[in-house]
Amino acid sequence: MELMPGYKRSDVGVIPNDWDAKPLGEIGDSLIGLTYRPSEVRAYGTLVLRSSNVQNGALCFDDNVFVDTDIPERIMVRPGDILVCVRNGSRDLIGKSALIDERAVGMTFGAFMAVFRSEHGKLLHHVFQSGIFKKQINEHLGATINQITNKSLNSFKIPLPPTNEERTRIASALSDVDTLLARLDQVIVKKRNLKQATMQQLLTGKTRLPGFFGEWQKKSLGELGVTYGGLTGKTKSDFGVGTAKYITFMNVMTNEVIDCTAFEQVNVSASETQNRVLRGDLLFNGSSETPEEVAFCSLMAKEVPDLYLNSFCFGFRLFDDQQVDGLFLTYYIRANPGREIMKLLAQGSTRYNISKTALCEASVLLPPKDEQVAIAEVLSGIDTELVALEARRNKTRNIKQAMMQELLTGKTRLV
To answer: Which of 9, 244, 252, 343 is most enclosed, with most CB atoms within 10 A?
Structure first.
């Protein structure tokens, strides 16, 4: 392929003629982290940054370890350092990184981490998040050991603009997008917290919506509907083919309303007797690794022909006597009141299960039907706002990826 005028091929791809492809070892220092003994861990002391302190390309302080030991000044982190995970049991976590800022002053980092120290830290932070860096990580990872050595890290090549002005402009443009992403993350967290608080108030009757005063009634789920099983008698060859669709285990676990874009194919012949999923059905996972996650509930809100349920879940079809709103019951069962009920019914030691019989014996508190509908509408409205915010965040992430591809390779210049 013919190069554009003013560009050249390099070890990191096509870059402008006046850019360099530099090994990291020529522009900074890679530092090995602190090795400490369990006896040196304290409730307070010097915070040791570990892999868990890097989340989504930024510092996170939700899971911290503190030590009381002598620490060389050289491995106390400084603003502008880049913290990198270089050893981990999970191959996918190797190379995840974050830029050290003022919040981390006075902290050190653990032996499974490295710090890259350079005057170009703000620019390199974005390079470390890019495909340029990740490609070299994959090329250097050992076949059996998930580790990047200091020698390997120092050999990684990165594209470097010739002037400080251009480097600063690129870093600033990408950091501005990071700031927007961080703000969107904060708004999403606040909205999720609002939803949890609203559910706690409305689904327990602690707060009543205006105009509703009727008594709440205790009902067993067996009074409200009937259960049915998922697919039976299927082999591996039946999945991924055929014209029928089925709802996966994870679709039930992760969604209050079934995601109709995430169905998978299954072959179901006309002679088979299988239970179809209908609009308005509630779907439950019958097992989980923890009792708190047994019998999550998801509503099938649309009519979809030839739709079935995976064999690890079961369905619940509401009676036609209009006692309960399906979406309200879904929120109720997924929220704290429902979780407490299902946790008590879960059976097992290493994996927990709930039977259809036990589910039908579970009792729930129901407000009048019109109040159920009103509560579900409030919570659904918050969910709609969350979906819009998450879509905006995902779009912004995609924009940043495109900007990185343009700016970090010099395809688009900011001079």
So the answer is: 252
